[in-house]
Amino acid sequence: MFLSLLVTEWYPILFDTPSNIVRSVAIWLTIAAVIVFLACFFAFKGEKRKKFAKYYGIGAVIYACVIGVLFLVLSFIEDGIEPILFYPLLALVLVLAGGALALFFRRDKITYIVIGCLAGAAIVASLICMGIHFASGDAADNNWLTNEDVNTVGLYVGAALLAVAVVVVAFLLGRKDRKGFSTRSITFAAVCIAMSFALSYLRIVKMPQGGSITIASLLPLMIYSYMFGTKKGVLAGFIYGILQAFQDTYILHPAQFLLDYPLAFSAIGLAGMFANNKTLKFPQVRFAVGAIVAGLGRFVMHFVSGMFAFGVNAPEGQPVWIYSLIYQAGYVLPDIAIAIVVGVLVFSSKTFVREMERRAENLRVFTTPAAPMEEDEHVATCSECGAKFTYSGDVTKCPYCNTPVERKEDAETNVAVNVSKTE
User: Fold this and answer.
1) What is the pTM of this model?
2) Alpha carbons 73 and 82: distance in angstroms, whole number
3) Is 368 in contact with 355 (CB distance < 8 Å)?
4) If you write DSSP's letter for every residue of 103-154 in order, what string do you get?
5) 172 and 203 fall within a common domain
6) Quick one: which H or E segment has residue 74?
7) Is 398 found in the same domain as 341?
8) Torsion-angle region of residue 144: left (phi > 0), alpha (psi -120 to 50) or beta?
9) Cβ(290)–Cβ(274) below 8 Å
10) Are residues 228 and 266 located together in one domain of the fold?
11) Taking the CB of residue 54, how many other CB atoms lie within 10 A of it?
């Protein structure tokens, strides 16, 4: 591991190509922006702090999108990607982006079926093209390998078992998650994926056979899982993993692609598994424990891929599993550790936690106690955006998204139940 670190490229001080120049500047600019944010956030109080955080957050999202687009263009120009891999992956990304946009305007059974069929066809086409590329020998040659160097059976079996494991865990932990995608969850998914994608370009270190240490690039995905549940978090991580294939392409086998990209980052979607755990009293602890499990899940994916796809790179006399263990630990564990440390600091802010709980759909047990209400006042939870608020009378609108909400009586408990008319 230490030898690998010696031959890596340290991007904060690398200025040999246009993309590396932009990346180095962006790294230091991002660090400066974080320092300014923390200084101003703790200096301001009350309404002034809230307004500052709002506008700074908008600026951060715009900055992340600009960085992501800029680096994507530069990587296409300088690095390129094989056409047989690029076009099916591009089609898949367009289908997913178009599907998210369609769900923003219309969410019904037909829409879900159409999007699912198109996405499934794009995934199958991508895997077929990867199989053809692998069978031709070009994929292995581009990575200084031969087809005989790759353990195909091990890759397929490992990918299948780990894929099933992630899906089962996500559904078991997400049994009580809100079903379906709301406008809010789709919007937050797009923002968090875009921010993680942009931050992933701000590498601190890149390993010689792939893999990078970044500036908390996985934190937005972890927060999304914490807010919206593991099932939505796993799906967001899956989409992000596909985007990663464009940025840092080491594809030599379909199963290796699944392990190193979609499945590895799907595991990050498990970070919110303890968001509603009553035994863990502090949000920092709930986040950190979930993030550790998610990080270990990602590590296992890369470990299996490294052992069966890149084991030939192991030094002579060293067992393949030890080589993969050391190599993957050299970048996955520091990358996860940075995200967890920054995340714990973020979750230490009571203002952030309160705002997150207000906007989340899956946090049910840690909301701030409400003040005593008048006799005619009722508490409502908007079924569209998840916001909680009080109102008087029988019909009102959500103050955050203007969704009509009607008050009804539960016949069994005789307790007021608030149901959106749109559902």
Assistant:
1) 0.71
2) 16
3) no
4) HHH--SHHHHHHHHHHHHHHHHHHHHHHHHHHHHTHHHHHTT--GGGS-HHH
5) yes
6) helix 46-78
7) no
8) left
9) yes
10) yes
11) 11
> What phi and psi, each to the nearest 5 degrees, are found at residue 213?
-105, 125
Integer Cα distance of 119 and 99 in angstroms: 9
Q: Are 329 and 302 in contact (CB under 8 A)?
A: no
Q: DSSP 3-state assignment of 418?
A: strand
How many residues are there in the chain?
423
Q: What is the DSSP string of 340-391?
A: HHHHHHHHT-HHHHHHHHHH-SS--S-PPPPPP--TTEEEEE-TTT--EEEE
- For the segment 396-415, what is each residue's pLDDT rounded down to a tens digit? 666 555 667 665 544 443 34
CATH of residue 35's domain is 1.10.1760.20
Instruction: Give yes or no: residues 196 and 332 share one domain.
Output: yes
Closest Cα to residue 222, out of 162, 176, 283, 280? 283
User: Could you tell me the two tokens for 154?
Assistant: 């091990």
Q: Are residues 409 and 328 in the same domain?
A: no
- Domain, as residue range, for 145: 2-80+137-359
For residue 193, what are the contacts with CB-CB under 8 A and spacing of at least 6?
220, 221, 236, 239, 240, 243
Using alpha carbons, list the distances in angstroms from residue 223 to 2, 105, 188, 286.
32, 25, 10, 11
Please give the Cα distance from 323 to 317 (Å, whole number).
Answer: 10
- % of the chain surpassing 70 pLDDT: 72
Last residue of a domain, one of 311, 333, 359: 359
* Lowest-confidence pick of 80-94, 247-261, 267-281, 403-417: 403-417
DSSP states along 267-327: GGGGGGTTTT-TTS-SHHHHHHHHHHHHHHHHHHHHHHHHHHHSGGGSPTTS-HHHHHHHH
276 close to 231: Cβ distance less than 8 angstroms = no
- To 10 degrees, what angle do helices 183-200 and 230-247 make? 40
